[in-house]
UniProtKB/TrEMBL annotation:
<dbReference type="InterPro" id="IPR001807">
    <property type="entry name" value="ClC"/>
</dbReference>
<dbReference type="GO" id="GO:0010008">
    <property type="term" value="C:endosome membrane"/>
</dbReference>
<feature type="transmembrane region" description="Helical">
    <location>
        <begin position="339"/>
        <end position="357"/>
    </location>
</feature>
<dbReference type="Pfam" id="PF00654">
    <property type="entry name" value="Voltage_CLC"/>
</dbReference>
<keyword id="KW-0868">Chloride</keyword>
<keyword id="KW-0129">CBS domain</keyword>
<feature type="domain" description="CBS">
    <location>
        <begin position="669"/>
        <end position="726"/>
    </location>
</feature>
<feature type="transmembrane region" description="Helical">
    <location>
        <begin position="440"/>
        <end position="459"/>
    </location>
</feature>
<keyword id="KW-0067">ATP-binding</keyword>
<feature type="transmembrane region" description="Helical">
    <location>
        <begin position="413"/>
        <end position="434"/>
    </location>
</feature>
<keyword id="KW-0472">Membrane</keyword>
<dbReference type="GO" id="GO:0005794">
    <property type="term" value="C:Golgi apparatus"/>
</dbReference>
<keyword id="KW-1133">Transmembrane helix</keyword>
<dbReference type="Pfam" id="PF00571">
    <property type="entry name" value="CBS"/>
</dbReference>
<comment type="similarity">
    <text>Belongs to the chloride channel (TC 2.A.49) family.</text>
</comment>
<feature type="transmembrane region" description="Helical">
    <location>
        <begin position="242"/>
        <end position="266"/>
    </location>
</feature>
<keyword id="KW-0967">Endosome</keyword>
Length: 732
């Protein structure tokens, strides 16, 4: 049997913790597409197959959008219910959360919309009253116990069934999209456990969000559904196009921002993002947002809990405090997140619950807190933050209230928010990186929103009492609605999230989609750019890049510049003191010799040369393909023994009589491996690796093979040049 004629199962696949060969995967898909196009002209059935093949990508996107949207809706509803369960239970039906419980009550008043006879706190159920110190202690105790139970279940499930379900998942998804293989990271067990433990972790009250992990959940959906379609199941590069779209779906359902999701995938996550993927990402994000809107998890016909609309314009001079918020976001974004030792989840939960309960702003879920801070105070608001002193004014519209002096409740809220700011800043640093699903989007936004609201109220009071100052004169007259504190909270949230992740364009679009306010794009842009500049000045890495480096993943960051004047010969192996390069000759080695070469080395592939003397390059063969092909030939090809010769030539030369049948393996050899000369500048080599997604590149001099440069060699060299440990790269 000639191995050229029949494909061997397993050839062309990859082992765990290996990088895919983008060039080979793309050419494989091109050949497949060419074959389908040629056959489609022969018969109607072949034409129908061609049409279904073209349509399969759109169908897959539809399924990913529907599945991710449905899961996100379930997660939102469950997390809302379980968060409220820490404080009490609904007598009408334990499955109702606090808000839905009171919707069904006829005795709910508008002023006390969160109070109704159907909802009972744990103190009311156990001791019969909600007043007095004993009732407070009982509620406090139940809050801490529920929080500990939820976090214990979350960490136990992650450790027992799916260790990959912890963290946000975005650093790993960035690495996978760059071509790395992490088997099981996007599997069905990870999806199931991540979905359950995400609800538990968010409900426990830990300072984490579900938005980052939702990107991981959506990518798991994309990966699992890829197995339904041969085109995506058998091609790793095509599968990564689907995962890029799935990342967009994750942000779409997390924030209710389909366009922001597509831009997030393009700007922050994807390694390779062709135009076709852009359209499909847009379609999938749209389907996911529509599915979530149909489920209506928050009961307000909105896709997010903190949708707001501001009605007052902003003034040019307000750009100064907006930029100050940007500076704050940039400084906080460079906090050494993840550098602290991971404390036991239960200890952190206990500390969080004990400190969070006394303060109403830390007791509520982080999403509700952001919703409260974004809120633009109107006439019907009963929030503590909106309890201003009543001043008789000539002109009051239902949309906007004029600036007024702050009442005692507002000052109390300011003190509570100041304490909440310190608490959130410290506890988020400790929480992120624990062995539970944890996102950083919402905690970062909360820190920024608190800082923004504090600054906004301060500016508002300054404008009210000193409207004749130069900075306010001309645009802030008495009785006018000059300052919107909610807008400052929104700008602060964007600034802190931008400082942590270094997102710019996608972040502004996400915030714009959240609020529906086109006129606030300039303040958001100013704060986001400032936070990025400040954060970059203090440290070049965003949180995801820092995590990739800490975990040692082989990721060539496109934002990182290579400015050193080294050459390919300085990086290639073998070095001067090393043994010579392990190569295979095209027609001079037996099966036994090749097998012993494989056994003695751990390289992922071997260059094929004409002979050891000439060292003239013929091609490159992958270790895995070589092993599988030899094993397959020994089982299925009659007469193949250890003495059989292996040929990588087009034609087999005549064999001596009585010699065992040869093994022809030209079909598994890459005939056009990428080569550079020994004097090629390393910045060009790094660029080639980035843009083509190469695994290895061969180095030649006057046509003779000198050495090899792998992705690992480049990463080690870059680490060395940056005075980092070069042996920290996890790469086979």
């Amino acid at each position: 049997m000639d191995l050229l004629d029949e494909p061997v199962p397993g050839v062309g696949t990859y082992e765990d913790f290996n990088t895919i060969d983008w060039v080979r995967e793309k050419s494989k898909d091109r050949d497949r597409h060419r074959e389908i196009a040629t056959k489609s002209k022969e018969s109607t059935l072949a034409l129908m197959k061609s049409i279904s093949d073209a349509f399969s990508g759109w169908l897959l996107m539809l399924l990913v959008g529907l599945m991710a949207g449905a899961l996100a809706g379930g997660i939102d509803i469950s997390a809302h219910w379980m968060t409220d369960l820490k404080e009490g239970v609904c007598l009408n039906g334990f499955w109702f959360n606090h808000e839905h419980c009171c919707w069904n009550s006829n005795e709910t008043t508008f002023q006390e919309r969160d109070k109704c006879p159907n909802w009972k706190s744990w103190a009311e159920l156990i001791v019969g009253t909600n007043d007095g110190p004993f009732a407070y202690i009982m509620n406090y105790l139940m809050y801490v116990c529920w929080a500990l139970l939820f976090s214990f279940l979350a960490v136990s499930l992650v450790r027992a069934f799916a260790p990959y379900a912890c963290g946000s998942g975005i650093p790993e998804i960035k690495t996978i999209l760059s071509g790395f293989i992490i088997r099981g990271y996007l599997g069905k067990w990870t999806l199931m456990i991540k979905t359950i433990t995400l609800v538990l972790a968010v409900s426990s009250g830990l300072s984490l969000g579900k938005e980052g992990p939702l990107v991981h959940v959506a990518c798991c959906c994309g990966n699992i559904l890829c197995h339904l379609f041969t085109k995506y199941r058998r091609n790793e590069a095509k599968r990564r196009e689907v995962l890029s779209a799935a990342a967009a779906v994750g942000v779409s359902v997390a924030f209710g921002a389909p366009i922001g999701g597509v831009l997030f995938s393009l700007e922050e996550v994807s390694y390779y993002f062709p135009l076709k993927t852009l359209w499909r990402s847009f379609f999938a994000a749209l389907v996911a947002a529509f599915t979530l809107r149909s489920i209506n998890p928050f009961g307000n016909s909105r896709l997010v809990l903190f949708y707001v609309e501001f009605h007052s314009p902003w003034h040019l001079l307000e750009l100064i405090p907006f930029i100050l918020l940007g500076i704050f976001g940039g400084i906080w974004g460079t906090t050494r997140l993840g550098h602290y030792p991971v404390l036991e989840v239960l200890v952190v939960t206990a500390v969080t619950a004990l400190l969070a309960f006394p303060n109403s702003y830390t007791r509520m879920s982080t999403s509700e807190l952001i919703s409260e801070l974004f809120n633009d105070c109107g006439l019907l608001d009963s929030s503590q933050l909106c309890n201003y002193a009543n001043v008789s004014v000539t002109k009051i519209s239902s949309d906007a209230l004029p600036d007024r002096p702050a009442g005692p409740d507002v000052y109390t809220a300011m003190w509570q928010l100041s304490l909440a700011l310190v608490f959130k800043m410290l506890i988020t640093v400790v929480t992120f990186g624990m062995k539970v699903p944890s996102g950083l989007f919402i905690p970062s936004m909360a820190v920024g929103a608190i800082a923004g609201r504090l600054l906004g109220v301060g500016m508002e009071q300054l404008a009210y009492y000193h409207h004749d100052w130069v900075i306010f004169r001309g645009w802030c007259s008495p009785g006018a609605d000059c300052i919107t504190p909610g807008l400052y909270a929104m700008v602060g949230a964007a600034a802190c999230l931008g400082g942590v992740t270094r997102m710019t364009v996608s972040l502004v679009v996400i915030m714009f989609e959240l609020t529906g306010g086109l006129e606030y794009i300039v303040p958001l842009m100013a704060a986001t750019m400032t936070s990025k500049w400040v954060a970059d000045a203090l440290g070049r890495e965003g949180i995801y890049e820092a995590h990739i480096r800490l975990n040692g993943y082989p990721f060539l960051e496109s934002k990182e510049e290579f400015s050193h004047k080294t050459l390919a010969m300085d990086v290639m192996r073998p070095r001067r003191s090393d043994p010579p390069l392990s190569v295979i000759t095209q027609d001079g080695m037996s099966v036994e010799e090749v097998e012993s070469l494989i056994a003695e080395t751990s390289y992922s592939g071997f260059p094929v040369v004409v002979s050891h003397e000439s060292q003239r390059l013929v091609g490159f063969v992958q270790r895995r393909d070589l092993v599988i092909s030899i094993e397959n030939a020994r089982k299925r090809q009659e007469g193949v023994v250890s003495a059989s010769r292996i040929f990588f030539t087009e034609y087999t030369p005549p064999q001596p009589p009585n010699s065992p049948p040869p093994l022809k393996l030209r079909g598994i050899m890459d005939l056009s491996p990428f080569t550079v000369t020994d004097h090629t500048a390393m910045d060009i080599v790094v660029d080639i690796f980035r843009k083509l997604g190469l695994r290895q590149c061969l180095v030649t001099h006057n046509g003779r093979l000198l050495g090899i440069i792998t992705k690992k060699d480049i990463l080690k060299h870059m680490a060395q040049m940056a005075n980092r440990d070069p042996d920290s790269i996890l790469f086979n």
